[in-house]
Design brief:
about 110 residues, mainly beta, 7 strands
Length: about 110
């Protein structure tokens, strides 16, 4: 069963929310990242528009194993396809028979 994670969701690690800007699903029988997956991740998704308004994001998936946030390479950080003025991180999430590769934005401007 594939993990339902899409661009526009939010990744929550600890008490910090990170908007997801890119997602790749990899079909892998045994994850080579298993020993590195030391964090827990929850995802949030905003509900559909209703009466011209969108509600607050609601929890979608929870208690997923993932790697810590990893800095992306400069090539990816400044990729025109991602068009992000924020610092980008990548992480890997364990699924059933798959690994999901996520790129997330750090929107905390105090860093």
């Amino acid at each position: 069963m594939a993990l339902d994670i899409v661009v526009g969701d939010e990744a929550v690690i600890g008490n910090q929310n990170y908007p997801i800007v890119a997602v790749e699903h990899w079909q892998i029988a045994q994850t080579p990242f298993a020993k590195m997956m030391t964090e827990m991740l929850t995802t949030k998704r905003a509900p559909q528009m209703e009466n011209g308004k969108r509600g607050d994001a609601e929890q979608k998936l929870f208690a997923l194993q993932c790697t810590p946030l990893l800095p992306v390479s400069p090539t990816i950080q400044f990729s025109p396809a991602l068009q992000s003025p924020h610092t980008l991180f990548e992480l890997f999430v364990a699924g059933d028979g798959e690994v999901v590769h996520l790129y997330v934005q750090d929107t905390d401007i105090s860093n």
